[in-house]
User: Which sequence fits this backbone?
């Protein structure tokens, strides 16, 4: 959502239409406030140079106060502080420069030939400064490199924006250049994704194996993820959920043992509000509550421990297929020792 809002802000500022800008700046703070310093900073400098104090107050100061009181201030009183969270790593694509190499020449032309686009120029400069400061914080203050590379989502927006501005300018001078350039680019994507090994997506630090020739690595990585990704829900699991939807009492509660994606699909397909994701620790049953229905999806690690016990209590089984098992309650597990 934050990325969509930034795209909208860039579009509005290009046409200098600021009437709905406060809605977008407010939405940015409440969607992903990691991007707030850069976007708000660029807007503040832009409005200040225009002496537009009305928009500074309405579109920036008021959302900042509300966002700070709602998000930031409570963080100082939580068990984990904001600093703790900003030091947490996560899995993300971590190439620093290689994917930008083919964009940079035309991107620079776009910057030079669109000097009047003050807001987006400010956004580029502040974003690069923000990334530079974040890089120092990662190396010397133990900040998360995950959040550093999150800023690359915004960087790609402005790079592509000025790249096509530059390409449009060149196209006016030579209409064949853009066709040739884009054809070469697409051809390079095909060759690279077909023959070059993909980089690893890791959850810590930088990709120290990055090389200048890895210009299409991001496409290769996306391809490998799409090809290697297992289906969120397969046909048999859908059949299980469909059976539940048409045959169960929605006034009763259900416990689900499965992956997070299976739980989300269950919610989305049935609209069922009484479902509970059963926590599994060390493959032991740790929830003492009673559930009218239990769904055990075969993808879950806990199913390896439970399947034998469930199948030995056939009188409780309501549905059984390759996707999982539906039972009438969890009274199968009357003794926790049964499944240790």
Assistant:
């Amino acid at each position: 959502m934050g990325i969509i809002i930034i795209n909208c802000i860039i579009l509005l500022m290009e046409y200098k239409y600021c009437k709905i800008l406060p809605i977008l700046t407010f939405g940015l703070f409440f969607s992903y406030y990691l991007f707030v310093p850069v976007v708000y900073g660029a807007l503040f400098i832009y409005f200040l140079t225009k002496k537009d104090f009305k928009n500074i107050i309405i579109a920036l100061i008021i959302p900042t106060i509300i966002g700070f009181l709602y998000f930031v201030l409570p963080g100082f009183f939580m068990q984990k502080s904001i600093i703790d969270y900003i030091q947490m790593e996560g899995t993300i694509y971590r190439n620093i420069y290689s994917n930008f190499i083919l964009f940079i020449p035309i991107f620079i032309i776009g910057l030079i030939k669109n000097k009047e686009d003050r807001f987006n120029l400010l956004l580029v400069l502040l974003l690069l400064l923000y990334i530079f400061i974040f890089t120092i914080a990662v190396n010397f203050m133990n900040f998360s490199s995950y959040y550093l590379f999150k800023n690359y989502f915004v960087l790609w927006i402005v790079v592509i924006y000025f790249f096509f501005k530059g390409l449009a300018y060149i196209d006016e001078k030579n209409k064949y250049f853009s066709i040739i350039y884009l054809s070469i680019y697409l051809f390079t994507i095909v060759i690279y994704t077909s023959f070059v090994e993909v980089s690893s997506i890791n959850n810590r630090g930088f990709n120290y194996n990055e090389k200048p020739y890895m210009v299409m690595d991001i496409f290769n990585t996306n391809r490998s993820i799409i090809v290697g990704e297992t289906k969120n829900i397969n046909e048999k699991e859908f059949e299980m959920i469909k059976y539940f939807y048409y045959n169960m009492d929605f006034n009763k509660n259900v416990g689900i043992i499965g992956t997070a994606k299976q739980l989300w699909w269950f919610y989305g397909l049935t609209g069922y509000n009484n479902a509970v994701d059963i926590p599994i620790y060390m493959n032991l049953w740790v929830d003492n509550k009673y559930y009218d229905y239990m769904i055990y999806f075969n993808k879950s690690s806990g199913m390896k421990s439970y399947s034998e016990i469930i199948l030995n209590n056939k009188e409780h089984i309501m549905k059984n297929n390759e996707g999982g098992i539906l039972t009438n309650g969890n009274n199968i597990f009357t003794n926790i020792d049964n499944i240790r």
Observations:
- The two ends are 44 Å apart (CA to CA).
- Confidence is low (pLDDT under 50) at residues 279-286, 334-340.
- Residues 91-229 form one domain.
